[in-house]
């Protein structure tokens, strides 16, 4: 009977829908009564009845009626509200536990209509309002029932929510949830819930504020509370994620706009608390409200943590809102309020009336919620893009800005944890500052005045300090200690002594290995080059020195990270002690140095170094550190004998876990060896014998130096002659082979091996000879090849027509001898700064004069590039197959630059006059070197289409000539990217990159991090770029609607700016074609432009040369992406595009770089045999030269060229770099 009744009611609802246009009296009352009867019938579980109703037109009828009712409410008032309530009940019960009915309701559009209904209620809600939204009981019932329907429409079987039932639903169906996500239902529900039931608002309830005094306040607050609980359950269901949702990540339903709604709710838990109104004065009257507040608190804390972990925009928005709350969060200072809550939030006093168990559970949950918010704050600070936002130097009274100042104050105020018991604030502050202080400038500011945080951090390092606090403090100290300028101040704060006193290296702390390793890192960095900190490590007031504690930890640990990093502390201590000139120390420190040296010239120390060597087969860097430290110790009286014993004695068996955290010196993916050689000497023999290309030549040469020095007379006690002979017998044959350069060899290793053999025949000369051995090859360029170099076809030396294949390594070894000889910077230009300065300021107008014919090429976007050809056509005639050097200049340079002419002058000089006899063509970027700007697009380190069309044009002019690319600085980056993008289709047969910036992000950070670099290099280069833009303002003004014109005006108006500021204004906007330009930020442009990421795609011989002391370039891809076509050479000196060495006459300078570059040009231009066609076929389309199959780029020659004398061009500090 019930089934028939329900079908009759459904049919009647259809009839009533059809009669709506008649607008009859009491029509909505009839709909209400019919829907109520149907809803009540559906409350009895009857699947057959549900199925039958779902197969009728009921879902469509309900949707149409709800739409009409919602529309009538807006025009005629509340007469429709009871009907709306009952219609929602019908739908909620119809889809309960019934997926088919959910589907038909979704198809009918009912969930969408419900969301629209909720949006109409949420429309008047103000952002983060504190007072409850005025709303009647009928409306509360409608909103609650609408949310109940959304729950029943999305939850899974068995746990659906009957309207008014208390059992919470668990899991939903994807179709409904996905539609609700697309409708932004979660945001609507959050907005409405937080306004209807602001957490804690019941404490401020005033009955006089009610619009309808006849309504029961207790019933109304019960409805508000239940609605809020259901709302959060609905939000949880829509987001999904976790075990109940197939382990999928939560759906992205919230962004930054949710933050003020969430965070403002936390104000209810910040004292002072108001006195509850009389209606809620008893515990029983407020019990459900208190529980709802607590439940929402838990949800909010978890959601904020999740958003900060998973959503970058949320992290960025929180940081921006600290400075601009009105623009970011509608007036709610979200991050500031989070910090206030973490600092001042406390248990509500009315929790004291709960039972002991309930109160304890709530207090524990409250603390866990705070912990989640601490994690959220740390994540915000850890977002790399927030570093500059959170660090603000604009207010002198708040060094570092509001966020940094607050973190510092937390540490200062609560460092006496026994008195304040605020571990949470210390953990939050130290972890957050640790994230922000990854830049040297920020790190230095934290340690230096006026902040001077070192002593405060030291005060926290007590034995009974909680390990989580120690983790934060030590992690921050590790970041701070990495900056060399901080080490003295941290030493004065007694950090090393406090670490030892805190017992972090003791056995009780072994369970927290990650903190022990971080503490080891602090000591390692602080002793690096700092003699006073080394004294603190080695010379304690008692026998239990920090160094002894670390070495004891190394012995008992089974972690490769602890063992190796701990021993590296000893390595740094040895280096600091031996490298410090005693003449620079006062008498007291000289005595301390002698005592400290004596303390490390002991069996435990040298044995630890021997074990480091023995266990590090996979890690050549660590072997090298152990060898260098033993070499230095061997110069001390009795040191040689101890070192010899450590090499010959059997190594103790070590149990090493292979899953411990990676070392900073090795790849994180490598496993640690569990078994090793029997003796440390066996590992050294393996290093000498093994021809593994991953073992740097420096390691082999240092091993030869150590063995050679030990064999000198007097270094090892005469009574140990037999043992010394054993060492020599074990290694002599290998060292002699290296000295004879048998097989593949490195000049540095050959030289070290010869000196070792000589040392065995000579009397001892002490430490001076050893250091001479260690640094003999210091000035030799270091070459980095792939593990398997590519093979190239070359003309045979035996026959002019024969072809042979050789590896790129052998190709360079035999044809570029200058790369295997010393480059010593001129003594008066010893540093990279001086080398770079002379490159910029030196007078090169009287040397390397080069004249050009200029041609202007118009590109498809209307832009213009200039190509300068030398020798000029009228000067002499060259063969059609004469090699051509295609040059790309530096940042704002051109064909006039001295470094360009230093290569082209000898390369293009006739053979009979001692040159190569080649052609040279310089590609001048848009707006540089007199090239006009004719479009709203400029140039950049990323844009390669201009070089692409220029090379097409050159190939068309000289189809038989091999083209060799060479790039300087920014031009080197463009050349690298071009070759990588073209791959095997490159029209260039080879490339050479000089002073390439590689990782543009790292180089930019390097320039901006150091005050001198920022003031001199960054601002100098930005000023030159500004000149380029200013010079062409009139031309850019012809494109008034373009972003380039707007950007140029902003840049021209600035008096001074850094390079990153210029790129933020101009380059990221108009530095190339779209896509990918414009970029969201300069750093997004830098990431895209970095060429080190594309090295693996190059497929032509490619030689790159950089200087380690380049003040502009900070990162070098020594792994060459394991691309056999790529070779990287690093010199110890040379600066940025300098490489000046002393000439033959006193005071004369010569550019060393031209020697290896000319050798390379000769090798690839004359000996290399191209093995494939270069580039795609070309044709002309409407006068433009294009590649067949590619219509987006092309060029044609236009008027405006001429004769150019390349001596000096447009000036400016660092112009051309």
From TrEMBL:
Lineage: superkingdom: Eukaryota
AB hydrolase-1 domain boundaries: 883-1009
Any GO BP: medium-chain fatty acid biosynthetic process
Pfam families with a match to the protein in the record: Abhydrolase_1
InterPro entries: AB_hydrolase_1, AB_hydrolase_4_sf, AB_hydrolase_fold, ARM-like, ARM-type_fold, Armadillo
Protein name per UniProt: AB hydrolase-1 domain-containing protein
PANTHER family the UniProt entry points to: ABHYDROLASE DOMAIN-CONTAINING PROTEIN (PTHR10794), ALPHA_BETA HYDROLASE 1, ISOFORM A (PTHR10794:SF63)
TM helices/strands, residue ranges: none
Alphabetized GO MF terms: acetylesterase activity; monoacylglycerol lipase activity
SMART domains: ARM
Entry similarity comment: Belongs to the AB hydrolase superfamily. AB hydrolase 4 family.
């Amino acid at each position: 009977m019930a089934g028939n009744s329900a079908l009759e009611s459904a049919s009647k609802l259809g009839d009533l829908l059809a009669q709506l246009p008649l607008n009859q009296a009491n029509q909505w009352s009839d709909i209400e009564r019919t829907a109520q009867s149907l809803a009540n019938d559906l409350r009895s579980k009857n699947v057959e009845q549900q199925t039958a109703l779902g197969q009728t037109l009921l879902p469509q009828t309900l949707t149409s009626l709800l739409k009409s009712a919602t529309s009538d409410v807006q025009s005629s008032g509340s007469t429709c509200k009871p009907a709306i309530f009952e219609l929602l009940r019908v739908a909620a019960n119809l889809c309960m536990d019934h997926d088919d009915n959910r589907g038909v309701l979704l198809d009918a559009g009912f969930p969408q209509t419900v969301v629209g209904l909720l949006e109409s209620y949420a429309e008047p809600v103000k952002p983060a309002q504190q007072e409850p939204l005025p709303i009647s009981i009928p409306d509360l019932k409608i909103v609650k029932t609408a949310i109940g329907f959304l729950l029943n429409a999305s939850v899974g079987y068995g746990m659906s929510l009957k309207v008014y039932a208390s059992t919470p639903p668990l899991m939903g169906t994807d179709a409904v949830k996905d539609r609700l996500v697309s409708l932004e239902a979660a945001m609507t529900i959050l907005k409405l819930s937080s306004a209807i039931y602001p957490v804690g608002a019941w404490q401020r309830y005033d009955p006089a504020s009610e619009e309808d005094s006849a309504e029961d306040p207790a019933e109304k607050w019960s409805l508000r509370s239940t609605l809020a609980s259901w709302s959060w359950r609905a939000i949880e269901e829509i987001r999904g994620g976790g075990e109940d949702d197939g382990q999928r990540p939560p759906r992205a339903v919230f962004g930054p706009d949710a933050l003020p709604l969430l965070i403002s709710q936390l104000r209810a838990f910040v004292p002072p608390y108001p006195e509850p109104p009389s209606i809620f004065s008893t515990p029983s009257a407020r019990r459900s409200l208190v529980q709802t507040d607590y439940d929402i608190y838990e949800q909010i804390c978890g959601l904020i943590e999740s958003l900060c972990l998973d959503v970058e925009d949320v992290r960025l928005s929180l940081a921006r809102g600290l400075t601009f709350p009105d623009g970011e969060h509608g007036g709610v200072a979200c991050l500031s309020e989070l910090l206030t809550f973490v600092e001042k939030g406390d248990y509500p006093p009315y929790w004291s009336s709960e039972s002991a168990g309930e109160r304890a559970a709530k207090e524990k949950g409250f603390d866990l919620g705070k912990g989640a918010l601490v994690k959220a704050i740390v994540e915000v600070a850890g977002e790399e893009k927030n570093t500059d936002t959170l660090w603000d130097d604009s207010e002198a009274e708040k060094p570092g800005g509001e966020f940094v100042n607050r973190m510092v104050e937390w540490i200062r105020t609560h460092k006496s944890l026994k008195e304040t018991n605020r571990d949470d604030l210390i953990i939050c502050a130290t972890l957050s500052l640790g994230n922000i202080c990854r830049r040297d400038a920020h790190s230095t500011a934290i340690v230096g005045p006026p902040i001077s945080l070192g002593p405060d951090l030291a005060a926290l390092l007590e034995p009974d300090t909680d390990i989580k606090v120690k983790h934060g403090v030590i992690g921050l100290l590790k970041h701070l200690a990495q900056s060399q300028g901080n080490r003295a101040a941290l030493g004065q704060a007694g950090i090393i002594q406090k670490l030892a006193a805190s017992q972090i290296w003791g056995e009780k702390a072994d369970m927290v290995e990650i903190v022990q390793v971080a503490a080891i890192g602090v000591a390692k960095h602080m002793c690096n080059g700092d003699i006073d900190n080394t004294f603190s490590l080695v010379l304690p007031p008692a026998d239990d020195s920090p160094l002894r504690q670390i070495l004891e930890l190394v012995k008992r640990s089974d972690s490769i990270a602890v063992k190796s990093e701990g021993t590296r502390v000893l390595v740094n201590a040895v280096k600091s002690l031996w490298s410090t000139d005693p003449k620079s120390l006062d008498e007291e420190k000289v005595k301390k140095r002698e005592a400290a040296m004596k303390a490390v010239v002991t069996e435990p120390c040298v044995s630890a170094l021997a074990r480091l060597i023995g266990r590090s087969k996979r890690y050549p860097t660590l072997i090298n550190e152990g060898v260098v430290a033993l070499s230095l110790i061997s110069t001390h009286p009795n040191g040689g004998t101890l070192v010899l014993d450590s090499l010959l004695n059997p190594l103790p068996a070590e149990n090493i876990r292979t899953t411990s955290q990676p070392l900073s010196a090795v790849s994180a993916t490598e496993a640690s060896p569990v078994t090793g050689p029997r003796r440390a000497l066996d590992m050294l023999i393996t290093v000498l014998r093994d021809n593994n290309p991953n073992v740097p030549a420096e390691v082999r040469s240092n091993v030869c130096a150590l063995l050679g020095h030990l064999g000198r007379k007097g270094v090892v006690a005469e009574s140990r002659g037999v043992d010394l002979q054993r060492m020599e017998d074990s290694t002599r044959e290998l060292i002699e082979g290296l000295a004879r350069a048998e097989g593949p060899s490195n000049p540095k290793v050959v030289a070290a091996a010869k000196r070792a053999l000589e040392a065995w025949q000579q009397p001892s000369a002490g430490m001076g000879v050893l250091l001479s051995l260690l640094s003999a090859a210091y000035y030799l360029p270091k070459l980095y090849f792939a593990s398997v170099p590519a093979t190239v076809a070359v003309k045979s030396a035996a026959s002019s027509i024969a072809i042979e294949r050789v590896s790129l390594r052998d190709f360079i070894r035999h044809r570029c001898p200058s790369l295997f000889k010393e480059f010593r910077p001129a003594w008066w230009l010893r540093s990279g700064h001086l080398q770079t300065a002379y490159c910029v300021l030196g007078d090169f107008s009287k040397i390397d004069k080069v004249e050009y014919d200029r041609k202007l090429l118009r590109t498809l976007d209307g832009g213009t590039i200039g190509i300068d050809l030398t020798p000029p056509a009228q000067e002499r005639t060259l063969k059609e197959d004469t090699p051509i050097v295609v040059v790309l200049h530096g940042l704002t340079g051109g064909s006039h630059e001295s470094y360009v002419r230093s290569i082209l002058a000898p390369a293009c000089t006739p053979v009979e006059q001692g040159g190569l006899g080649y052609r040279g063509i310089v590609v001048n970027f848009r707006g540089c070197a007199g090239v006009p700007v004719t479009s709203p697009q400029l140039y950049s380190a990323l844009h390669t289409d201009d070089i692409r069309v220029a090379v097409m044009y050159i190939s068309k002019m000289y189809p038989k000539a091999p083209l060799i690319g060479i790039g300087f600085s920014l031009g080197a980056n463009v050349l690298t990217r071009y070759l990588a993008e073209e791959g095997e289709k490159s029209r260039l047969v080879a490339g050479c990159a000089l002073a390439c910036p590689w990782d543009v992000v790292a180089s930019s950070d390097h320039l901006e991090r150091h005050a001198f670099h920022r003031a001199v290099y960054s601002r100098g280069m930005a000023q030159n770029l500004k000149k380029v833009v200013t010079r062409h303002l009139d031309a850019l003004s012809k494109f008034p609607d373009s972003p380039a014109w707007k950007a140029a005006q902003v840049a021209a108006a600035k008096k001074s700016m850094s390079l990153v500021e210029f790129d933020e204004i101009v380059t990221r906007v108009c530095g190339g074609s779209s896509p990918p330009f414009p970029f969201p930020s300069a750093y997004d442009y830098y990431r895209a432009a970095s060429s080190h990421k594309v090295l693996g795609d190059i497929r032509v011989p490619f030689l790159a040369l950089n200087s380690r002391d380049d003040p502009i370039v900070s990162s070098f891809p020594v792994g060459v992406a394991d691309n056999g076509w790529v070779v990287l050479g690093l010199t110890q000196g040379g600066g940025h595009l300098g490489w000046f060495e002393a000439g033959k006459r006193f005071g004369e300078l010569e550019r060393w770089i031209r020697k290896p570059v000319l050798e390379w040009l000769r090798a690839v231009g004359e000996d290399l045999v191209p093995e494939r066609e270069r580039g795609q076929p070309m044709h002309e389309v409407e006068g433009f030269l294009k590649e067949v199959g590619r219509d987006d780029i092309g060029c044609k020659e236009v008027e405006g060229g001429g004769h150019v004398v390349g001596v000096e061009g447009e000036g400016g500090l660092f112009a051309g770099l």
